[in-house]
Amino acid sequence: MTQDHSLAPAKTVAAPAQPAGPRSVLLLQGLMGPLFRQLGRGLMARGHRVHKVNFNGGDAAFWRLPGGIDYRGALADWPAALRRLIAAHGVTDVMLFGDCRDHHIAAKAVCRELGIRVLVFEEGYIRPDWVTMEEGGVNGHSSLPRDPAWYRQTAATLPPLPPHSRVASSFRRRAVEGLAYNAADLLSRWRYPHWNNHRPWHPLVEGMGWLRKLLRKREREAAGAALMARLAASGAPYVLFPLQLDSDAQIRIHSPFVGIADALKGVIRSFAAHAPADVRLLVKEHPLDNGVRDWAQETADIAGKFGVADRVDYLVGGDIEAIAAGARGLVTINSTTGTLGLALGVPVVVLGHAVYDLPDITCQAGLDDFWHNPVPPDPESFAAFRRVLIDRCLIPGGFFSAPALDKVVRHAIARFEGVPLLPE
């Protein structure tokens, strides 16, 4: 059920009082899929009032609950419209996925002005099987301190973590949900005339890329397995560079690069100039890359330009944990794969802004030095950082299987209501 939100002149509203009991939650954009639908249903079942803003047909298709509000206005009018929504529904909390989308940037500013709590979801800082749920902002917008000593002191005051278990994840499910979301968006553009996707591709182009990846899944996985077998047989040391998504705000906003191609050039240029002759560079495709750009070919072209085509490999598929564990070091812009490497004791250098880029945890001397001197993390410092991060910002679960999503929703509601981390 949805209603149109009119654009009547805005009135100045004061921040509503924070109720002791049931709260009024406004959901903005979620992940492409049923995450916010299930979260909304769970919050309603707990007695909270819930409304959801749908900015396009994909949002609406995955909501299908009472409290849906279609926003059909322009981005410039969105802050005033949000103020009216907050006043009309007595909103106490706003939830959103990713805090760098245009509508979400504006929403955070309005909420700061009105004293509304903002809870941001993202892929987990720690992989696998964790989801980020942080107040105020994530990644480069996080308010977490940068002092390793603070993490060691704070961790010492926290109880041990309860047992943590793995959750299933399905690439096929992610692809199908993405195709369904984009199809609903395309078919309803007439209803949302001002909608402009934060992603750089037309939904049809992105959908075709996902379809090609699905059709070639077995072939690509076989090629990746063959590459890793050759690397293992050769015994050559390798440094892992896991790619991120070209559309990701982590690249556009929280790094010095304009895109993945720019990052590839910088990393391969440094590798060619500074890496020992016996070391290889393993470029790993992001598992959720939509296949629109041929990163394997672009990697080969750049490696050829810098004269290291025979020492640079491109990998699709594979168990990222096993691949990282075998690496001499790990280069990342600000991927959560960085924390996976750190947990395995692998040296990590960060090229962008990441919450885990701290002295004693990541290499601080820069990329050119890293090839020759990859210093592993201090185990005590990383363990303390991880414990505090889970306490402040993470909940167990995942997005791409029913059990994983159920776990996320259960823990998200507990975190929202101030209940300690639940036993799994």
Q: Strand sequence of the main sheet, in spatial order?
A: 1-4-3-2-5-6-7-13
- N-C termini distance: 34 Å
How many H/I helical runs?
16
**Name of the CATH class of the largest domain:** Alpha Beta
What general outline do the C-alpha atoms trace?
Answer: globular
Structural class: alpha/beta
What low-confidence regions span 5 or more consecutive residues with pLDDT below 50? Answer: 1-19
N to C succession of SSEs: EEHEHEHEHEEHHHHEHHEHEHEHEHHEH
User: In total, how many beta strands?
Assistant: 13
Q: What is the annotated CATH architecture of the largest domain?
A: 3-Layer(aba) Sandwich
Number of self-contained structural domains: 2
| CATH topology tier name of the largest domain | Rossmann fold
- Percent strand equals 5-15%
Largest sheet geometry: 8 strands, mixed
Instruction: Give the averaged pLDDT, no decimals.
Output: 88
Helix content: 40-55%
- Rg of Cα set: 22 Å
